[in-house]
Every structure is written in C-alpha cells, then in structure tokens.
Write a structure and sequence with these properties.
The complex is a heterodimer of chains A (about 240) and B (about 230).
Chain A lengths: L18 E2 L2 H5 L7 E4 L9 H8 L6 E4 L10 H6 L3 E6 L8 H8 L4 E4 L2 H13 L4 E3 L13 E4 L2 E6 L6 E5 L2 E3 L4 E2 L8 H5 L4 E6 L1 E3 L18 E4 L10
Chain B lengths: L4 H6 L3 H11 L5 E4 L3 H5 L10 E4 L3 E5 L20 E8 L2 H9 L5 E5 L2 E3 L4 E2 L14 H7 L2 E6 L10 E2 L12 E6 L2 E6 L2 E8 L4 H6 L6 E9 L6
Parallel strand pairs in B: 1-2, 1-5, 5-8, 6-9, 8-10, 12-13
Antiparallel strand pairs in B: 2-3, 3-4, 6-7, 10-11, 11-12
Classes of the chains: A alpha/beta (about 240), B alpha/beta (about 230).
C-alpha cells in the first residue's frame, strides 16, 4: 500500500488517505436510499469490484443512474435481483441482455426513468458544474419531453432539463495517483469523468495506483479534487453480452 | 421485403444498401453509424475520401474489428463490439461526445428506422407496448446531427407500410430525416415531400408508390439503385 509516502506538515498522510485497502472498505458507508451514479458503457469502464462489494453490503432502496439497466446476471444485475434498487435512471432500458431488469420492471418491482443519452450526460454535467437548468432540442415531440416545459429559442423548440446529481459516484478509471487524479483508457471513460464531478463522494476503482507526480499534470483527465476515494481492483472479466 | 414477389425479387440486400449509402457520403464528412445495416456502411467508404467515423461512446477514428484474441476490453463501439483505432483517432467521455453531437459537430447520423414520415419524422427507438427498446443516443443524434440518413426495409414483413404520412410508433425526433434508403428506393425528404430519386432495378416509381403512404414526388424519371451480385 501507498499509505504515508506523501506527507503534509499540516495533516500527515492527507493525500494517501484517499487510497482504500479494499472495495468493501471503500463503499462501507453508502447509506440506504442513496442515489448512485454508476459509470460504464457496454463492458467498458464498469467498476466491477465495487459492484461486487455492494452486493455484500446492506444498503438498499437505492436509485441507480447508469447508461443501461445492467446486462447478464452479474454486476448491477446482482443488486437488482437482491431487490436493493428502487429506481433505475438510464438511457437504454430494455436491451435484450437486461433481462433481469426487464423481469422486475414488468412485475412492477422497480421504477424506471429513461432519458436520451446526451440529456443524461448533460444533466449530470450540469449538476457538477453548478448549472441550474438548461434547454435542449433533444427529445422535443417525443415521450422524453412529456410533462416537461418547452420553449422556442432562436426559432427552435427546446425542452427544459434539470441537473441530475448523485449522493455517491461509483466509477472506474485506468490509473490513479494517491491524490485522486484519474486517467481513463480508450472508450472506457464514457460516463465516468462526468459522474466524478456530480456527487459529494466519488469512489474510483482503478487498475493501478501510482505516486503523485507520476501522472503528468497535462495528462490528468479527472483532477484530484473530484475524487474522495481510490481503490485498486482486479479485472473480473465482466463483459457486455451483445 | 414483403409479401409481393416482384418487390421481393428486386429488393436490395443489406450490403447493397450500405454501398449506396456510402456512395452518398460527402468527402471529409464526420459520420455516426447506428447499429444494424448502418454499421456496414463503413466497409464501403474508401479511406482516401477522408470520412471520419465517430461513435457516441467516445471515439473518433474507430478502425475495424481486431483479430480474434486481440480484443481490448477498453476499446468498443456503441454497439458494444470490439474495435481498433486508426492513426489520428481520439477518445473522450460522454459529456464531450454528446456536446459534439448536440452542438452540431457531426455532419451525418446514419440510423436504422422503424418508420419515417413524409416530413422526415423518425421513429426508431421502440415499438408500442411495455418493456421494449431503449432510447440510447438516438434522440440526441437525430436532433443534433446536421443530416440524418435513415435506412429501413420499405415495408414490414407482413406488408405493413413504414413510409407514412405520420409515424404511429413513438417518435425519436421530428422533421430530421434528410435521406431515406430502403431495399427498393432512395428517397430524399424535401420541404415539398418525399422525392423519389432512385428505384431498384426491375421496379417502377408506381411499384414504390404502391407501398408508400405519402404521395411521392418525382423529378423526371428516377434513377436505378445499383445492385451487385455479391451478398
């Protein structure tokens, strides 16, 4: 472990306090009723180890904001089966691989709010960036705009959308330094960087933790102040079943 | 293509449709490919034309599928399939990706369609009924891309019409489709209505009109949609 190598005169081990010894420890205080921003798209950028830990954790009545309503029998699907999730907010609900969610939904055991993917990303961005609300032409004249205020701006009709913050962001990055700076790899960034900005507690699972300074400042994708906890996780082989 | 044996025998195969769509892309265009036949379009665009393909999960410059065993879990397209990257590619997160899409930086979105209306309304994310389909990036792409090329079979398997006065399925976006490519026709959606540009070899404008709800406009006699022998 990296505890103690980055010292601060005011507060010893200040930075490395972000590095947690296990996924279990990193998620231990997620409360009942929390709104979780969960990163990942397809099989890329999913915090698999944190999801496994959450399956062993009693927190329930959760709202999960994530791109798709789980796939197969693992990862998010385990929490769904356990009945820990009250509501899913996602962009793609009924992919054929999301059969666990679909079954619960048709039985009336889980709520759904389905959003255009870009509207979801922008609502999360707005939450992290202090934007009170925004108008977008996406969704005008569709079910996604039902019950929402619209307004014509510069001759184009647009829908009013509000920020979508979380209580906890549970994300995956490729690499972190002990201060919480994050780097993503390939298309595994997806929702992870924007979600990191939109919750007071961001927990990042990473493949590698390095000392501060190893990641060059201009290479940082998510600056450290957005990240409160970092934990190293193994590749558990969770992949989307297309 | 449906029930009618004449239409069926003249209908284009998916590869032919993809080839025709590819030929329509302007050089240098930034293009998003939806799932289904749209993913085939990339196979028919010569690299020399400078067309850039973006996928909404955060990549510009996606290359072909890697060889078996060379897949990288961190490199996938929006259809969740493994990809490689081409020289000059870039990757980014969802906030950036959809800012690109919604900000008008994507020239053409090529999307599969379930129904298209005479005004260019697009329905492609779900069918009526509970627990079906998903929005994904379709509404953002349809509203944000400068042009939308829609691809569909001209009719349903049971012969039901899909080019309609008004869509009956839930909409993805209104008045967005600029060009419609089907297995029997290439139709441009104009302010005056659907303009029949090309018809599959062996068919006439009347044959296409017979399986289209809105009145099709013609400008002289329509061209022939090329069909190749290869599958």
């Amino acid at each position: 472990m990296l505890h103690g190598f980055f010292l601060n005169k005011e507060n010893d081990e200040l930075a490395s306090d972000k590095v947690y010894p296990s996924s279990k420890a990193a998620i231990a205080d997620i409360p009942d009723g929390a709104t979780i921003l969960l990163g990942g798209f397809g099989g890329a950028g999913i915090p698999e180890n944190l999801l496994v830990a959450m399956a062993d954790h009693p927190a329930h009545d959760l709202t999960v904001v994530t791109n798709h309503a789980g796939f197969g029998e693992r990862g998010l699907a385990v929490l769904l089966r356990q009945g820990k999730v009250r509501k899913i907010i996602c962009s793609y609900a009924f992919h054929r691989s999301a059969f666990v969610f679909r079954e619960l939904y048709l039985e009336g055991k889980i709520e759904l709010e389905q959003l255009p993917q870009g509207t979801m990303a922008e609502r999360i961005r707005a939450a992290g960036a202090g934007v009170s609300a925004f108008y977008t032409p996406t969704g005008v004249g569709t079910q996604a705009a039902e019950g929402k205020e619209t307004r014509t701006i510069n001759g184009r009709e647009a829908v009013l959308e509000y920020p979508l913050p979380g209580d906890v962001a549970v994300i995956k990055a490729h690499r972190a330094d002990a201060m919480g700076n994050l780097v993503y790899r390939g298309t595994a960034a997806n929702f992870n960087p924007v979600m990191a900005t939109a919750a007071p507690l961001t927990i990042a699972e990473v493949e590698e933790i390095v000392e501060p300074g190893v990641i060059a400042p201009e290479s940082v994708h998510t600056p450290s102040i957005y990240v409160q906890r970092v934990v190293r996780g193994e590749d558990l082989g969770l992949r989307s079943e297309t | 293509m449906a029930s009618d044996p004449k239409l069926e025998s003249c209908a284009l195969k998916p590869a032919d449709i993809a080839r025709r769509v590819a030929a329509e892309l302007p050089g240098g265009a930034v293009v998003n490919l939806g799932i289904g036949i749209p993913t085939l379009v990339g196979n028919y665009v010569d690299a020399g034309r400078g067309v850039l393909f973006m996928a909404e999960n955060g990549i510009i410059g996606a290359g072909p599928r890697p060889e078996e065993g060379r897949e990288d879990k961190d490199y996938i397209n929006a259809s969740r399939e493994p990809i490689t990257t081409l020289p000059g590619a870039s990757v980014f997160g969802h906030a950036e990706s959809f800012a690109m899409i919604r900000g008008g930086h994507i020239d053409i979105a090529i999307m599969g369609a379930l129904q298209v209306s005479a005004q260019g309304d697009l329905a492609n994310w779900t069918v009526p009924g509970l627990g079906k389909g998903g929005i994904g990036g379709a509404m953002d792409l349809a509203a944000g891309a400068r042009e939308v090329y829609a691809i569909m079979t001209h009719t349903m398997k049971d012969g039901g019409l899909k080019l309609l006065e008004d869509c009956s399925y839930p909409l993805t976006a209104k008045k967005v489709v600029t060009k419609l490519f089907t297995d029997i026709a290439f139709i441009e959606i104009t302010p005056d209505g659907p303009l029949l540009r090309e018809v599959a070899e062996g068919l006439t404008a009347e044959d296409v009109q017979a399986v289209s709800e809105p009145k099709l406009i013609t400008d002289g006699s329509p061209g022939v949609l090329p069909r190749e022998e290869s599958p």
